Inverse folding.
């Protein structure tokens, strides 16, 4: 099933991300230890003289003056999202832009499809309320709103009953009406599936786009270490943080797309069941209606 396939691919992407994070966690402490060894002095300092007098105690801090204001120092985070965008290269920016477009497109499709399904449910209730109480199929179809899938199916069935002329005159009426109504149902179903392919694509590819950013960030970390000539934590923290942010972005884009895809597919199935029930009842009504002779 498409949903199971996307779930397996998402699990694979999460597993790869966990392995990369574990590898980064194992490398960073070793880098920090190497930095500490490099910074250590060549010879240990002389031990302090035990007979030396103890240093005088530091004077107590003066109490804050009454009515004074306490100054708070604000330290900018050099590894935040703003620093990621400003310090990232063209590849990192393109990766972030792709993930942002995927996220916006997914949420747009989810919101619009939910609205369309809600409107389709209202049209189904209107068809059950007004269509079957009409004196004829034609009048019942005219009571439905323009653009309603139920009106489209009813008009397709009516059109099929009036086209049994010339070559089509040899076709059985039951077969021709069934084919016309089925084509209308397929058309309605194809419209309900608009946008779901995009959600499936985002759900299956966004984790790998995030993993690409992760690999690119680790590559920059190793490059920074090679250029600096020493294992300094400040040379590694930025690229590794960039890599982890890319992984988080990829998962944050993929999870809503997968959940939205499965939810919308289930709602579409329920809506199409109502459409098929209406079409089956319409088929029976059209076959039982009195036949009118075709015009010359």
């Amino acid at each position: 099933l498409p949903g199971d396939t996307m779930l397996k691919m998402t699990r694979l992407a999460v597993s790869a991300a966990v392995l990369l994070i574990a590898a980064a966690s194992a490398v960073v402490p070793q880098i920090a230890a190497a930095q500490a060894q490099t910074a250590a002095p060549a010879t240990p300092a002389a031990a302090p003289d035990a007979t030396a007098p103890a240093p005088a105690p530091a004077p107590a801090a003066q109490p804050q003056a009454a009515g004074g204001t306490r100054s708070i120092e604000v330290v900018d985070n050099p590894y935040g999202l703003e620093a990621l965008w400003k310090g990232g290269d063209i590849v990192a920016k393109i990766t972030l832009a792709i993930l942002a477009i995927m996220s916006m497109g997914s949420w747009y499709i989810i919101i619009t499809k939910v609205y369309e399904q809600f409107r389709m449910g209202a049209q189904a209730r209107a068809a059950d309320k007004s269509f079957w109480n009409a004196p004829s199929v034609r009048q019942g179809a005219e009571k439905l709103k323009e653009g309603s899938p139920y009106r489209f199916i009813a008009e397709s069935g009516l059109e099929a009953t009036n086209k049994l002329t010339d070559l089509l005159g040899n076709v059985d009426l039951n077969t021709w009406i069934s084919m016309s109504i089925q084509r209308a149902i397929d058309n309605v179903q194809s419209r309900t599936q608009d946008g779901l392919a995009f959600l499936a694509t985002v759900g299956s590819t966004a984790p790998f786009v995030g993993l690409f950013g992760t690999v690119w960030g680790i590559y920059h970390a190793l490059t920074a270490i090679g250029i600096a000539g020493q294992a300094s934590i400040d040379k590694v923290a930025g690229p590794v943080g960039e890599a982890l942010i890319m992984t988080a972005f990829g998962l944050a884009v993929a999870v809503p797309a997968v959940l939205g895809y499965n939810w919308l597919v289930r709602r579409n199935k329920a809506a199409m069941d109502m459409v098929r029930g209406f079409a089956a009842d319409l088929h029976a009504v059209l076959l039982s209606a009195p036949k009118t002779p075709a015009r010359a």
Notes: The two ends are 52 Å apart (CA to CA). The helical segments are 2-39, 81-87, 90-131, 137-143, 149-161, 173-192, 196-228, 233-288.
